[in-house]
């Protein structure tokens, strides 16, 4: 992953972690622009790391890089504050696009997840808003 990211001249890898706890601590210390995290990690999973990072660092944009295309994971990642969800078999260009979109303040989801996951996320948010009333 480091080699892929550093092949793009606009990106610089500032740290790497072997597990979720280490990743959360690293973000706390580095406050980098983007965190790319695996969904399944030892210690804390990627969804929990995303939640913790977004709770503590408004600056860091999280892109989840999973094997799973399951919509429930996508929705959970969005709920936890992820800016992107790019499945591992995506091209490097797609990952670069996700990073650029996240930095610009937009969300990016690997096709064909985009439309269905965003709709599910919005519908779930509307249902929750109605329940609070």
Brief summary of the model shown:
The protein has helices spanning 2-6, 20-30, 46-56, 71-79, 92-103, 113-132, and strands at 34-37, 61-64, 84-85, 108-109. With 133 residues, the protein is α/β, with parallel strands linked by helices. It has a single domain (2-127), classed as Response regulator (Rossmann fold).
How would you describe this protein?
There is one protein chain. This protein has 133 residues and is of the alpha/beta class. The chain has a single domain (2-127), classed as Response regulator (Rossmann fold). It contains 6 helices and 4 strands. It has helices at residues 2-6, 20-30, 46-56, 71-79, 92-103, 113-132; strands spanning 34-37, 61-64, 84-85, 108-109. A 4-stranded parallel β-sheet has the order 1-2-3-4. α4 links the parallel β2 (61-64) and β3 (84-85). α2 packs parallel to α3, α3 (46-56) packs parallel to α4 and α4 (71-79) crosses α6. The radius of gyration is 14 Å and the shape is globular. The termini are far apart.
Structural class: alpha/beta
Largest sheet: 4 strands, parallel
CATH C-level category: Alpha Beta
Q: Uncertain spans, ≥5 residues at pLDDT below 50?
A: 129-133
Helix content: 40-55%
Task: Compute the number of strand runs.
Answer: 4
CATH topology: Rossmann fold
What's the pLDDT, averaged over the residues? Answer: 85
Whole-number radius of gyration?
14 Å
CATH homologous superfamily placement: Response regulator
Determine the strand fraction and express it as a percent band.
5-15%
Form type = globular
Provide the spatial order of strands within the biggest beta sheet.
1-2-3-4
CATH architectural arrangement: 3-Layer(aba) Sandwich
